[in-house]
């Protein structure tokens, strides 16, 4: 049986991926320091899968602790690395905190893997590395740009560190996954997204507004050059995204790669506007969402959506779930989590 270490495994994307891996019969070991996650998520994972994965509370910026961890798990076949800080605005206020956390953790991880001869890495990256797109849909060959925030830049630099490592070591292989906008929750509603503090992202802000935790949703700009004036993104169901990670691990373990460092975009290929997301949410939830139009948010791009060709052809992965399933599951999770 294969064993996969999942860092950040009780976070939003991590926990859904852990469920998909366990359902495939893979043994999962989680490393997480709970800086932006909750230990109760382990109960959710156990309740869905019947398996409580081994859990280690480790701050990965502590290389000694991480090495000790790998001494225990040198038989791991692969690592999926989610653990990172991800608040865009916060990262501009505290760039060094973000670089230290996201890059030291990655460097310690690679050192630990190499020392213990674990040679397969999946990196959790972001479509933010493309910056303002030069063309749409965005293919993996689209140029990457300096990140618009320290968070975004830490993803870009992270990919570069991994690529240099792969180029320097014959037996080290990696796949970087560039996510578009993951939203929604597991259909059991036992795990989902629950950010600390005021959400930065659209979907948790929408569900928290409907739950009465936030007064109203601000729509950041309605004067974009799009059909309804609001910005367009490629929202992808978290369960589809989780499945893509299983395919990625299989690709690494079965040696199917075309090169030792590969990149895949993970999106649906469908651009949806902020107003379309709100319309779907209101229809699926039966809730009228208090909302107002405000100025554009600094650093936002007008339109982003992914080319799905490479993921479909090479990874054999296609998204299945639509926007209505995303908004309704996000709402069901929010209600259940808040006992509404
Ligand atoms: C954001 C980050 C991106 C990061 C991703 C992680 C920025 C500029 N980009 O992507 O780097 O990888 O989150 O999840 O922060 N919106 C509103 N009202 C809100 C919140 C959002 O109108 O209260 C709009 C935004 O203007 C945008 C869309 O909703 O058009 C999606 O926003 P969001 O969920 O924050 O994602 P991104 O900005 O695409």
Structure overview:
The protein is α/β, with parallel strands linked by helices. The chain contains 11 helices and 13 strands. The strands form 4 sheets. The protein has a 7-stranded parallel β-sheet, sandwiched between helices. A two-stranded parallel ribbon has the order 7-10. A two-stranded parallel sheet has the order 8-13. Helix 1 crosses helix 8. The radius of gyration is 19 Å and the shape is globular. It starts with a strand and ends with a helix. The relative contact order is 0.14. The model has no long low-confidence stretch (mean pLDDT 97). It binds uridine-diphosphate-N-acetylglucosamine. Uridine-diphosphate-N-acetylglucosamine binds next to helix 7 and strand 8.
Helix coverage percent of residues? 40-55%
Quick one: biggest sheet?
Answer: 7 strands, parallel
Number of strands: 13
Widest β-sheet, arrangement of strands: 3-2-1-4-5-6-11
Number of helices: 11
- Report the portion of residues in β strands: 15-25%
* Radius of gyration from CA coordinates: 19 Å
The hetero compounds bound to this protein are: uridine-diphosphate-N-acetylglucosamine
Order of helices and strands: EHEHEHEHHEHEEHEEEHEEHEHH
Q: Find the structural class using helix and strand composition.
A: alpha/beta
Helix-strand blueprint:
Blueprint: E1 3-7, H1 12-23, E2 27-32, H2 41-49, E3 54-57, H3 63-72, E4 78-81, H4 88-93, H5 95-115, E5 120-126, H6 150-168, E6 173-179, E7 181-183, H7 202-210, E8 217-220, E9 232-233, E10 235-237, H8 238-253, E11 261-266, E12 272-273, H9 274-285, E13 291-294, H10 309-315, H11 323-337
Parallel strand pairs: 1-2, 1-4, 2-3, 4-5, 5-6, 6-11, 7-10, 8-13
Antiparallel strand pairs: 9-12
Helix pairs in contact: 1-2, 1-8, 3-5, 5-6, 7-11, 9-11
